[in-house]
Amino acid sequence: MEQRNQTPISEFILLGLSEEGELQPLLLWLFLSMYLVTFSGNLLIILAIVMDSHLHMPMYFFLSNLSFVDICFTSTTIPKMLWNIQTQSKVITYAGCLSQMYFSMLLAGLDNFLLTVMAYDRFVAICHPLHYMVIMNPKFCGILLLVCWVLSVLDSLLQDLMVLQLSFCTQLEIPHFFCELNQVIQLACSDTFFNNLAIYLASGLLGFIPLIGILSSYSRIVTSILKISSSGGKYKAFSTCGSHLLVVSLFYGTGFGVYLSSAASQNSRTTAIASVMYTVVTPMLNPFIYGLRNRDIKLALRKTLCDEV
After folding, report:
1. Which residues contact residue 168 at a Cβ distance below 8 angstroms, ignoring those fewer than 6 apart?
2. Which of 99, 119, 201 is nearest to 155 (CA)?
3. Cut 0.85: pTM above it
4. Which member of 41, 98, 103, 276 lies 3.0 to 4.6 Å from 76 by CB, making a disulfide possible if both were Cys?
5. Distance between terminal CA atoms of the chain?
6. Does residue 5 contact residue 169 with C-beta atoms inside 8 Å?
7. Which residues, 6 or more positions from 92, have their beta carbon under 8 angstroms from its beta carbon?
8. How far apart (Å, rounded) are the C-alpha atoms in residues 15 and 238?
């Protein structure tokens, strides 16, 4: 056994969402359509913000970065899944698996931190409107974005380096459509105590602390909105953060849903199906949420599309 553990591995097998042959064409066209919608929708949001000078504000600066991260997030997992279905090959190289795992953790972390920063931005805009542009100046926004990147890079790099220290047996089948950290660690023959400890610490520090920050920001936002006397003023104030609140609910709701499904079910395939919600569905819905609910984005999108025509 010890000798088998030390044998270097070259590839993993991604089992995907289903092994039934008749479902593969359906999965191919379904996920291809979702990927194209996600890519084009988020790209339109970025173009609208870049091309419209009225949207050169902190809120839309962070929104454009969120759209960019969502494009990269889906591009990390879905193209490989589509390629495997098309070629009827489930193989992913060891280096490819580590790379996919690194970038998926990096981009998921960025999503998390950007949503937290956007909540703070809404807090300043509603609770301190007269000082908004002073507080959320370009330099400070750049620093916030840099902090998001640094924290995400450090966390994903640490998790990836710790996986490099693991030894694997001959059972290298991952019951998922991409190299998800927990699934890869479960294949290890060596001790995974420190890997699991790192996951729990990272989830606590980099998951719940940002969530607490979001909840704290919105508790103060709600308190400020309730102090507004006119109903029109209350509606206008709430409408500026309604889209963000909906995206936050989707992101954390699907994340907790995956966690609960993995805890309640021993079937890893069930967890993989649940993971589709936060890896594919949420990034796909974000452009629709902001495009349909935000008047400025809606006007900018209409202008961008008309100019292209």
Report:
1. 5, 9, 187, 188, 189
2. 201
3. yes
4. 103
5. 65
6. yes
7. 11, 12, 13, 14, 80, 84, 100, 179
8. 44
Nearest Cα to Cα of residue 78 among 178, 154, 214, 205: 178
Per-residue pLDDT of the chain (309 residues; tens, 9 = 90+): 343 444 567 899 999 888 887 889 999 999 999 999 999 999 999 999 999 888 899 999 999 999 999 999 999 999 999 999 999 899 999 999 999 999 999 999 999 999 999 999 999 999 999 999 999 999 999 999 999 999 999 999 999 999 999 988 877 899 899 999 988 998 998 889 999 899 889 888 888 899 999 999 999 999 998 888 888 778 877 877 888 999 999 898 888 777 776 666 666 667 787 788 888 999 999 999 888 777 788 888 887 777 655
Indicate the residue type of 32. L
Helices (H) and strands (E) in the chain, counts: 13, 3
Q: Are 105 and 74 in contact (CB under 8 A)?
A: no
